[in-house]
Specification:
Elements: H1 2-35, E1 39-48, E2 54-65, E3 69-71, H2 77-83, H3 86-107, E4 114-118, H4 121-125, H5 129-140, E5 147-152, H6 153-157, H7 161-173, E6 176-182, H8 189-194, E7 199-202, H9 204-208, H10 214-229, E8 233-236, H11 242-251, E9 255-256, H12 267-270
Parallel strand pairs: 2-4, 4-5, 5-6, 6-7, 7-8, 8-9
Antiparallel strand pairs: 1-2, 1-9, 2-3
Helix pairs in contact: 3-5
The structure holds ligand C2E and calcium ion (3 copies).
Ligand C2E binds near residues 60, 73, 237 and 239.
Length: about 280
């Protein structure tokens, strides 16, 4: 039994070692990727439920790796967070999506489209963040009110004064703030009241069970009434079926995104979607 225990421990150590090595490899490849412009951004349309029009897009980063092909963010964002490269990754994504938004805005004067960008805790805590954001907005020459930054509940609710000050500075620039994956982590309703966030994104896990799981339906409906009572907007994510979209519309959700409307796509593929309804 002792021998077996040792064998298991060795196997465990090997696995830890392999995982650590993999992270080191990702880190050094990512450094090269930043220099060689291997990161690119896809956009997923956000659809106004009452008429099916695209009112915004969410920017989602991808990595075109020279040997491993396209790597999704789930496979490298956490490494980037740990080693600090997220600051550069996040800056590139923000720059590229603001530049892209400016291009689309020129194509369709008189119509506003909102750009939503995910921001990591470490990225936003970087002292230079707000200054850079201001610069990026100025360089791209876009209306700050067309940009929305998405933060997860954890950052939003980590009640430090520093976070509160930061969020207020961002709001003062005119940029909007959304709480991502709402309902999955710890949210305190009293903190939500004081939070300078205008948008709640209802997590995919609750949308999955809409109509089939009474519990999920109840959660979605309470998030919607809470948001309404607090004067906040809602976006449902991960809508994969027509019946989910129909139900969200009936329940009073304004905007939704998900594979039912469109997967995240290259920028060029967004343009034709801007002039039609993605569902009715
Ligand atoms: P997220 O912000 O919650 O983004 C939604 C994820 O769900 C995206 O995965 C999207 O492609 C996927 N999705 C959209 N609609 C559906 C649907 O109907 N069904 C299902 N099953 N999935 C759907 P993706 O692109 O792999 O991104 C994963 C996560 O990586 C994001 O989750 C976000 O937390 C993070 N991420 C992506 N881009 C960035 C970035 O530029 N910066 C930072 N810090 N994080 C990012
Ligand atoms: Ca997001
Ligand atoms: Ca989300
Ligand atoms: Ca998520």
């Amino acid at each position: 039994a002792k021998g077996r225990g040792r064998a298991r421990l060795e196997q465990f150590n090997d696995e830890l070692h392999a995982r650590a090595q993999k992270r080191v490899q990702i880190e050094s490849d990512l450094r090269a990727a930043l220099r060689a412009s291997q990161l690119f951004v896809e956009y997923q349309p956000q659809v106004r439920l009452k008429d099916g029009r695209v009112v915004g897009v969410e920017a989602l980063v991808r990595w075109r790796h020279p040997r491993h092909g396209i790597i999704p963010p789930g496979d490298f964002i956490s490494v980037a967070e740990d080693c600090g490269l997220i600051i550069k990754v996040g800056r590139q994504v923000l720059q590229e999506s603001c530049r892209q938004l400016a291009e689309w805005t020129k194509l369709m004067p008189g119509r506003t489209l909102a750009m939503t960008v995910n921001v990591s805790p470490r990225q936003i805590m970087e002292p230079a963040f707000v200054g850079e954001l201001r610069q990026i907005l100025a360089d791209a020459n876009i209306d700050p009110a067309t940009l929305c930054l998405e933060l997860t509940e954890n950052v939003m609710m980590s009640a430090t004064e520093e976070v509160a000050r930061l969020l207020n500075e961002i709001r003062q620039l005119g940029v909007f703030i959304a709480i991502d994956d709402f309902g999955t982590e710890h949210s305190s309703l009293s903190r939500l009241r004081d939070m300078p966030a205008e948008v709640l994104k209802i997590d995919r896990s609750f949308i999955d069970g809409l109509s089939s799981e009474p519990g999920d339906t109840a959660i979605v409906s309470s998030i919607l009434s809470l948001a309404y009572a607090m004067g906040k907007h809602t976006i449902a994510e991960g809508v994969e079926k027509r019946e989910q979209a129909a139900m969200l519309l009936r329940m009073g959700c304004e905007v939704a995104q998900g594979y039912f409307f469109s997967r995240p796509v290259a920028a060029e593929q967004i343009v034709p979607m801007l002039s039609k309804a993605l569902w009715q």
